[in-house]
């Protein structure tokens, strides 16, 4: 008996797969990669590395599918709406189960295994939503959720006697004490993101993403930029991202592209790398330099000299960059 186990890299999906191994089910793991995983927020690969670790530790084959191209239109206009922020959880699960169904047919598997827990997610992990997702993905009755199976309607696998229902669990709700106890029982100690996680449920990230949508800047390059730094909307055609530490400064430099402006203080001053994207005139360059100066360590000096250049272009200097007033700075911050 063979099944496809949906693996996010989080604890619940790990436990679900481990429980299936205990019952003698042969598993192939599936991880779908997108830019919105909170476990590995700097990468476009999402939670792939966490899923890779889980599959390796369990001795299982892992198939990873990048769904970014199909998922971005869903994020922008989800058929079943958003959750509390910009999280299209129901549409996301439908896409995931459709991909799992394709792999199930390719691998000759009979059903799917999910780490979902009834009531843990208010939008997608309710009985009605679970049924809707299965139906629209074409896998109705073929999704086994071993952590909550005994409080859910019996699946085809249980009705056919492939899986013994009394060996499955009845976990409900958002408390995680039962999962932690089960992890201890199985000797599972290293799980990078205990409950999984999606940046689309994060209020700060959602604000920045909504800003991209409102200014017609919704594309993968700009989305990756949202994961780092402080973000400022300078006008309808330009924004500035300010690095918060040395690592982010390096990331901003690496993410710069043709048409961007890179701002940084002169060498003797400690301060951030800032990336300007959009259309900048001299007035906006002065504004960006003022923001950069605000975050510099001026050691009591009233102003800084800020260097800036277009992508791979010659550096220019803006002298006497006076730090922007905090009140104005906060009004520009996304």
Count up the domains: 2
Query: On the 0-100 scale, what is the average pLDDT?
Result: 92
Give the second-level CATH assignment, the architecture of the largest domain: 3-Layer(aba) Sandwich
CATH class division of the largest domain:
Alpha Beta
Task: Bin the helical content.
Answer: 25-40%
User: Helical segment tally?
Assistant: 12
CATH topology of the largest domain, by name, is Rossmann fold
CATH superfamily of the largest domain: HUPs
For the report, how would you describe the main beta sheet?
6 strands, antiparallel
Could you say which overall geometry the principal axes of the C-alpha atoms support? Answer: elongated
Distance between the ends: 51 Å
- As laid out across the biggest beta sheet, the strand order is 6-7-9-8-10-11
Binned strand content: 15-25%
Topology, number of strands = 11
SS class: alpha/beta
